[in-house]
């Protein structure tokens, strides 16, 4: 019960899981930090280090600002800022202005305020470019420097010039270090991003090698076997059933012997390209081995499949292979077999294979139904 209540509260405060939830949680974290800072000011007042009238309006200002940023993110208004949907730069600038105001009001405990700008930059640098981090570091350095000079002149009793000089040098050193760290973090992010893209590309390539024939780009034999089995299970609920076609390029060995293996590869790739253009999107063609191809036509009777095979034959006949040899024509023989629910896949392919060899004995360049 308590777990579901906590989950419901989290959904109410942060929204559904996703990037917006992360942004909302970060905004609430900033709000919590501002609240703790208000508690620190109150404690300093309680021990007599601060006068409440000097800083009473400050917490109301920065807590209101933090709530407005949270409301902008929770309502989705931030998404209009495509370049900075996390509102990182506006929130950082706001935080720097708050720090500058707090430094000018907190007198004896102002040293604690110096810790805040570098901390804000460290949180922000994960979402900002190095140039933005450097610009904000310079901005807060100049802003705090101006406040220090102003207070040293107008309130030297609480802001001695020498102490302010030490403070400005110290904050300058820390901000410079944070800027260097930001640049390195950015370089690391870019490197990780590049490595991620390279890994995704490698995984995609491995996936293609596992399922695709490298030469033709068609489905390979192993993956085709899995696809045929999956389709046979699916077709138990559909009519008509699928047809299996075994295709063999005619006189392919003669092409290899006469014109070289590169010419043979060109023929295979051309056949694959023509098939991709002619066949339906649901049809699957695989390189079965050598110059043999296996074609699966889901939801198609053998008589209907024959029309698809003949369209492929006509398209191949129109394809020019003059680059290999002037007047060269490439043909194929095909055997077609219906594949019922209770048929073994191997038996379907064997029937198509026998029909294909009958097409060879009939003179090639034809199709035979099993």
Summarize the structure.
This protein is an alpha+beta fold.
Could you characterize what this model shows?
64% of the residues lie in helices and 8% in strands. It has 370 residues and is of the alpha+beta class. The chain is built from 13 helices and 5 strands. It folds into 2 domains: 2-204, no CATH class; 221-369, Reverse transcriptase/Diguanylate cyclase domain (Alpha-Beta Plaits). Strands 2-3-1-4-5 form a 5-stranded mixed β-sheet, sandwiched between helices.
Distance between the termini: 66 Å
The fraction of residues assigned to DSSP E strands is: 5-15%
Report mean pLDDT, rounded to a whole number.
88
Give the SSE order as H and E letters.
Answer: HHHHHHHHHEHHEEHEHE
Shape, please? elongated
Helix content: 55-70%
Radius of gyration: 37 Å
Number of E-state strands: 5
Class inferred from helices and paired strands: alpha+beta
Count of the domains: 2
Query: Uncertain regions: pLDDT < 50 for 5+ in a row?
Result: none
């Amino acid at each position: 019960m308590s777990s579901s209540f906590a989950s419901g509260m989290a959904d109410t405060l942060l929204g559904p899981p996703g990037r917006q939830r992360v942004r909302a949680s970060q905004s609430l974290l900033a709000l919590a930090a501002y609240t703790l800072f208000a508690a620190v000011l109150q404690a300093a007042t309680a021990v007599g280090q601060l006068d409440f009238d000097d800083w009473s309006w400050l917490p109301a200002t920065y807590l209101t600002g933090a709530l407005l940023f949270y409301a902008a993110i929770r309502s989705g208004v931030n998404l209009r800022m495509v370049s900075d949907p996390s509102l990182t730069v506006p929130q950082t600038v706001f935080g720097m202005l708050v720090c500058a105001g707090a430094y000018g009001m907190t007198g004896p405990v102002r040293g604690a305020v110096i810790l805040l700008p570098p901390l804000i930059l460290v949180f922000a640098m994960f979402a900002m470019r190095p140039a933005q981090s450097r610009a904000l570091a310079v901005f807060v350095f100049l802003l705090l420097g101006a406040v220090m000079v102003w207070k040293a002149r107008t309130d030297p009793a609480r802001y001695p010039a020498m102490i302010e000089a030490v403070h400005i040098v110290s904050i300058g050193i820390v901000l410079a270090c944070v800027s260097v760290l930001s640049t390195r973090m950015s370089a690391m992010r870019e490197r990780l991003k590049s490595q991620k893209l390279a890994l995704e590309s490698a995984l995609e390539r491995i996936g293609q090698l596992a399922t695709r024939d490298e030469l033709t780009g068609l489905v390979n034999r192993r993956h085709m076997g899995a696809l045929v089995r999956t389709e046979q299970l699916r077709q138990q609920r559909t009519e008509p059933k699928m047809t299996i076609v075994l295709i063999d390029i005619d006189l392919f060995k003669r092409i290899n012997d006469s014109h070289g293996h590169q010419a043979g590869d060109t023929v295979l790739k051309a056949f694959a390209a023509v098939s991709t253009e002619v066949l339906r999107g649901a049809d699957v063609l695989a390189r079965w081995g050598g110059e043999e191809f296996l074609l699966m036509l889901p939801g198609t009777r053998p008589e209907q499949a024959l029309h698809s095979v003949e369209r492929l034959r006509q398209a191949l006949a129109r394809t020019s292979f003059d680059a290999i040899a002037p007047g060269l024509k490439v043909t194929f023989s095909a055997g077609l077999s219906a594949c019922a629910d209770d048929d073994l896949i191997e038996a379907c392919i064997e029937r198509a294979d026998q029909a294909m060899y009958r097409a060879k004995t009939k003179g090639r360049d034809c199709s035979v139904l099993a």
